[in-house]
Write a structure and sequence with these properties.
Elements: H1 11-14, H2 17-27, H3 31-51, E1 56-60, H4 62-65, E2 74-79, H5 87-100, E3 104-109, E4 116-121, E5 126-132, H6 135-150, H7 152-167, H8 180-193, E6 209-213, E7 216-220, H9 238-252, E8 258-261, E9 266-269, H10 270-273, E10 287-289, H11 306-323, H12 327-330
Parallel strand pairs: 2-5, 8-10
Antiparallel strand pairs: 1-2, 3-4, 4-5, 6-7, 8-9
The chain binds adenosine-5'-triphosphate (ATP) and magnesium ion.
The site of magnesium ion has 5 residues, from loops.
């Protein structure tokens, strides 16, 4: 059977805009959910400050970076003014306190890469992960949130890509696929690369916000309210962007030589970063530079098996966007 191929400038693709936008809208959390999150944060703040008056609580991750879909878990960081050498001790103490306050499923995971306490609040039904002094995550959350304020198409694209990744089982770092954080960086980079560009490179502009965390200087232009017309000379719609995003990762990206970098707003070479060889468990089969910790490749979790799974999924998604009569359904079919 010969299928007609859609092209990204063909009017046929514009027909996909409204079903894709409907999916995006169905994923946005309702306002009541935000209120419940604030309520839980206030409760936790009270409990933490009773024990550690100098500690501050910060939301990070998708509940704060604005890329959270409805019913997401929330991520909280407890920040102390001093360095904490034994995070386990703090987390175990915290787990005790939370348990005595009737929070449910309280569990301290002290050996995880990022040690946390998990809990479920029976009052709001919200689950939450609490970590200690992970301030870099608070700052990269802020960067993502600022990018989201510039052009609504980043929001739309990232919601659809995250929903696709969860539906297709390629959003699990413990299985060698990518984190939500990595997917959002891929979306930002992709929109920085459109011509005309849809997003600027905030770290390449005048510094208006700067903090140093764990010896890493995090600096960028954060007056994003001045940039709300930035992408207006590019008229691409969500369907064209979803089409081009998957086409890029399926058929265009140079996996052997290129690193995507939101920090520079461009592609850089693996050679330049010395990411050409495997060192211990660090492979660089898909390279996504962290915007602040530039030695960190978010693709390092991907191994020689999972890269095949991931690339096959990008190709499937691109082909669905190219040929399928109902991509807004087929794209998200459970694997
Ligand atoms: P989801 O909606 O799937 O929960 P999320 O935005 O909360 O998505 P996660 O991958 O759970 O994304 O990560 C939560 C936060 O932790 C990210 O927003 C980011 O601030 C931080 N983070 C996650 N992975 C890394 C990493 N490898 N390096 C640095 N920061 C990370
Ligand atoms: Mg999260």
């Amino acid at each position: 059977r010969m299928l007609k191929r859609r092209t990204d400038c063909h009017s046929d693709i514009l027909r996909l805009d409204s079903p894709l936008l409907a999916i995006y809208e169905s994923l946005i959390p309702p306002v009541e959910e935000k209120a419940k999150q604030k309520q839980l944060l206030a409760l936790l703040d009270k409990l933490v400050c009773k024990e550690w008056p100098e500690a501050r609580l910060y939301l990070y991750g998708s509940c704060e970076n604005s890329f959270g879909v409805s019913k997401s878990d929330i991520d909280i960081c407890v920040a102390f003014n001093e360095d904490i050498h034994d995070k386990s001790e703090i987390l175990l103490k915290l787990a005790d306190i939370l348990q005595s306050d009737n929070l449910q499923n309280v569990q301290a995971l002290t050996r995880a890469r990022v040690p946390i306490v998990k809990l479920m609040d029976p009052l709001t039904g919200i689950s939450c992960d609490i970590c200690v002094n992970n301030v870099l995550a608070v700052v990269n959350t802020r960067l993502l949130r600022d990018y989201a304020k510039i052009d609504v198409r980043l929001w739309q694209l990232a919601f659809i890509v995250k929903h696709w990744a969860k539906s297709r089982g390629v959003n699990a770092t413990y299985q060698g696929t990518l984190s939500s954080y990595a997917y959002v960086l891929m979306c930002i980079h992709f929109l920085q690369q459109r011509r005309p560009a849809i997003l600027p490179c905030l770290q390449g502009m005048e510094t208006t916000f700067s903090v140093t965390v764990d010896d890493v200087e995090c600096a960028y232009f954060d007056k994003v309210e001045n940039l709300c017309n930035f992408g207006s000379s590019n008229q691409e719609t969500i369907a064209q962007l979803v089409w081009a995003f998957f086409n890029y990762w399926a058929y265009i990206h140079d996996y052997a030589n290129s690193v995507i970098s939101v920090r520079t707003g461009s592609l850089i070479s693996k050679g330049e970063k010395d990411w050409t060889r495997r060192i211990d468990n660090d492979r660089h089969l898909i390279c996504i530079e962290d915007p602040f910790v530039v030695s960190h490749d978010l693709g390092q979790v991907v191994d020689k098996f999972s890269i095949k799974v991931l690339r096959a999924e990008f190709e499937r998604a691109a082909d669905v966007m190219h040929y399928d009569p109902n991509p807004w359904i087929t794209l998200f079919e459970p694997y």
